[in-house]
Amino acid sequence: MTLAVKSKLRRLQKNDLVRKVGVLVGGTAFAQALTILVLPVLTRLYDPSDFAVLAVYVAMLSIISSIACLRFEIAIPLPKSDDIAIRLMCLALLSVIAVTGVVSLFVFSFSDEIGQRTNTELIAYLWLLPVGVFFFGVYTVFQYWAVRRGNFKSIAKTRIVQSISGAGTQVGLGFAGATPLGLLLGQIAQSGAGAYRLARSTLASVRQEQHKIHISGLIQTFREYSRYPKYSTWEALANSGAIQFPIIVIAGMTAGAETGFIMLAMRLLAAPMGLIGGAVSQVYLAEAAVKYQSGELEAFTRKIIVQLAKTGAIPVFLAAFTAPLFVPLVFGEGWGRAGALISWMAPWFLMQFIASPVSMSLHVVGAQKTALVLQVLGLVFRVGAVLLAGAYINSWVGEVYAISGFVFYLFYLFVILALLRVNRR
Questions:
Q1: What angle do CA 126, 130, 132 make, to 5 degrees?
Q2: Distance of alpha carbon 51 from alpha carbon 359, whole angstroms
Q3: Which of 78, 133, 248, 410 has the highest CB neighbour number within 10 Å of its CB?
């Protein structure tokens, strides 16, 4: 090994950002690997129509869970005072309880209508939706507290526990013939396992601060951070809706298992992308506030973008070229459509992999209104594209969905860079 290589390795080891990302990637790697390894088993225990039910359930869960905390959770790492951060955590938890209650009332009142407009097989399992929202919301709150404390090891451990719990539940119930229920319960088991572990460690660390939590303090903190539920909530809803709502629309427009194929394709692409992208996103948020105060946020963001582009380009395009051949061999002959969709989705996922982590910069600089406008435009554009495809080229609706994702995230990235440049000046 040359002296230059050794010197570079030493610098990387001393780089705090690299070290933090490494901790999260190390824990997440096992979770993502298990997710991928178990998929060929699941595609033989469950048929595409079962995955179609899961796809619609996950789409609904993702949309609602994105606003379950009213976005107070993303503010938890930002304040200098732990007192304010604890109050933000309480506000986020109270929001989760309130949103879960509203979802429960809605589901039990309109379950038949929801099932008829999406997937009739889902009607019997809609009661799992508020359960999933609650566990996902609680986990998210405590995860952001761990980010604030720099406790990335705990986050990595929970991801391992989540993966084992979810995969074990889905495989076990699949062998027992509980389809598609096994897929849905496995999805909930993932969030539940992670929520319990992080909740236990978080509550132990803040137990001595309980006396600082009072109504007047919560009201004051709510007022100070009201821009998050006012603006960021709608932004998150539009962001999640732009990705997930077209799946619900596709399920209503197409008969059969098209949404199941879309879900498998998205999972296969999201697993390797999430391995690094999710870790960078959380570490970026923890570092961005400091960089902003020192006037280095634009340079820091550009550096992250370049690193993400170099990391993601080769594996994503390799997957695009090989998926049509290998997906039917690995997952079964009935899943060939998913391989074709991966080829179309690859550019979208690469652009999302680059843009999503640095999108948090809009919150750091206080540009919640801009973020909201961008996400609403993305929602309208992507849903509109799917509706037009469904009306005129129904057999290509999955491909149009993929192209719309690439176009939106490319535009989103350009806007982020332009805004940071203006902000610096």
A1: 95
A2: 30
A3: 133
Whether the predicted pLDDT of 15 surpasses 60: no
Q: Can you give the pTM of this predicted structure?
A: 0.82
By C-alpha distance, which of 40, 90, 74 is closest to 289? 74
Local confidence band at 342 (pLDDT 50, 70, 90 cut-offs): very high
pLDDT recorded at residue 101:
97
Residue 99, number of CB atoms within 10 A of its CB: 20
Tokens read off for 12 = 């990387």
CB of 71 closer than 8 Å to CB of 241: no
Distance CA 29, CA 213 (A): 37
**CA dist., res. 30 & res. 36, Å (int):** 10
User: Is residue 236 pLDDT above 80, yes or no?
Assistant: yes
Cα–Cα distance, 229 to 240 (Å, whole number)? 16
pLDDT of 371 reads 82
Phi, psi of 156 (to 5 degrees): -60, -40
Alpha carbons 167 and 35: distance in angstroms, whole number: 7
Tokens 């570490």 correspond to 283
Residue 210, token pair as written in the block:
């309980």
* Torsion angle of the four alpha carbons 80, 86, 88, 90, in this order, in degrees rounded to the nearest 10: 180
